[in-house]
Design brief:
Elements lengths: L1 H22 L11 H26 L6 E6 L5 E3 L12 H5 L3 H6 L24 H11 L46 H5 L5 H10 L25 H4 L47 H10 L7 H7 L6 H12 L23 H10 L19 E2 L10 E3 L2 E3 L5 E2 L21 H11 L6 H11 L3
Helix pairs in contact: 7-11, 9-11, 12-14, 13-14
Length: 456
């Protein structure tokens, strides 16, 4: 009788474990595969997945280095121009905009570059850093954020400038306080000792301190060749901004529905009331604590304990980290007045026309309200109206659900765009919303709208 009673329990436990493996909540442990075998296996697979992803990018986008004339980010990096999303043969943006969502869907004409963008190896996921960040971090600190199984996907000219400038709400008179350096544990004290108070300094210290993470830790199922101290908050949010490092969200299952993450800028978090593209956490303290305890380990507390989770103390450490983040200001926008709109004596005719469109026909201001160009709400664009559910390199393109309204101040400094990096330029972004909101903008109007967005 006893053994008969145990059978359903054993079967149910086995089924539960299998379900967790399918949804990505369990991983192969070091006991199942030694580290040398793991490295060799994943290195052998790496070219295949890299080829798959690069072919997808080439099919979707024009990745050429084509900078806009006379338009730069805050420290001078050229802004890339032009629509980079490719259309089907014989299709034009005007023809596509004339179609209803139902017609676009039935004819399978939704542009490939407007589908959700997969992680470079979506089935594996995990944190992945641009080479510029890897090189400078290794030079300064000795930490190597290279993954032996994966490389970052986008070329540097399509990413934010690196290292980004840092502007503080408390010292706007100083301008960029980074002195052109990437802020790390190696130099933060020298750079900020005369600017911050002791609490803020401690918060910054914690933001540049590495903590164990799923792919970068000391266990033998890591993705770094050497046992690793981990990842710092500012490895993704470099200099309190973004370097476009990517990951897959930890709070969605099964794995095929997990979003690729666009690392958002931390500039202006003091005016934001929602944190996380979909989680809708209500304070930067919540977000800071959540990221270290859950997002670092894909929402898996068992893995977190195994790999060395660091439990931050809410009343001091988390609070101090949030206090520094709240000092990070948007870059200067010399053409805007104190209400966040264009000063007509400084703006061009095209920029002024773009502003009129932004607050009128283009309907941008329905969500992006000045002076910071956010409404601190979430909106569901229901982009799935335009396409049939499909699998793309391990990522199922289906309904995204509601996404937070990101601030548009300083937007030219933060490519790629949307919550999963699928839009490479502001021109791509205008074309995307022209279709999704069914705006029927003409080409001169699109050009003017981009000109206005570059002033923010």
């Amino acid at each position: 009788m006893k053994s008969q009673m145990q059978i359903p329990w054993v079967l149910s436990l086995t089924a539960f474990a299998a379900a967790l493996l399918v949804c990505g909540a369990l991983t192969i442990s070091a006991a199942d595969e030694d580290f040398t075998t793991l490295v060799n296996r994943l290195r052998q697979q790496k070219p295949m997945f890299a080829k798959r992803h690069q072919e997808l990018l080439a099919k979707r986008y024009d990745l050429a280095d084509r900078p806009a004339q006379g338009v730069t980010m805050s420290r001078g990096k050229p802004v890339q121009e032009g629509v980079r999303v490719r259309l089907a043969k014989d299709m034009t943006w005007e023809k596509l905009a004339a179609m209803s969502p139902e017609e676009t869907k039935s004819k399978n004409l939704w542009p490939a570059g407007f589908f959700p963008l997969p992680h470079p190896h979506h089935e594996a996921g995990g944190m992945l850093f641009p080479q510029s960040l890897i090189d400078e971090t290794k030079l300064q600190t000795g930490r190597d954020l290279t993954r032996f199984d994966l490389d970052f996907d986008f070329p540097q000219h399509l990413l934010p400038e690196f290292p980004a400038p840092i502007y503080l709400t408390t010292r706007p008179d100083l301008g960029d306080v980074s002195r052109g350096q990437l802020v790390t544990l190696n130099n933060f004290h020298e750079l900020f000792k005369d600017i911050l108070n002791p609490k803020q300094m401690e918060g910054l210290r914690l933001l540049v301190t590495p903590f164990a993470q799923a792919q970068f830790n000391a266990t033998e199922d890591r993705r770094s060749l050497q046992a690793h101290p981990g990842v710092a908050c500012f490895d993704c949010h470099a200099n309190g901004h973004t370097n476009a490092a990517t990951h897959t969200v930890g709070d969605i299952r099964p794995n095929e529905h997990r979003h690729r993450i666009d690392t958002p800028s931390l500039r202006g978090v003091n005016i934001q009331r929602l944190f996380g593209s979909q989680r809708a956490m209500k304070s930067v303290e919540d977000f800071t604590e959540f990221e270290q305890r859950a997002a670092y380990f894909d929402g898996d507390p068992v893995q977190a304990q195994q790999k060395g989770v660091n439990i931050l103390e809410r009343g001091s450490q988390v609070h101090f980290m949030a206090e520094f983040q709240d000092l990070l200001d948007f870059p200067p926008a010399p053409k805007l007045n104190v209400l966040g709109k264009l000063d007509p004596t400084k703006a061009t005719a095209g920029e002024l026309r773009g502003q009129q469109l932004f607050f009128g026909k283009a309907q941008c201001s329905s969500c992006h309200i000045p002076p910071y160009y956010t409404d601190n709400l979430m909106h569901n664009l229901r982009v799935e109206r335009f396409y049939n559910e499909t699998m793309i390199n391990g990522r199922k393109a289906s309904a995204d659900g509601p996404i937070k309204t990101f601030p548009l101040r300083g937007i030219k400094d933060s490519p790629p765009y949307l919550h999963d990096d699928r839009l490479l330029t502001l021109e791509d972004t205008v074309e995307f919303f022209n279709l999704v909101l069914e705006l029927k903008l003409n080409q001169p109007e699109k050009k003017d709208l981009v000109a206005f967005l570059r002033t923010l």
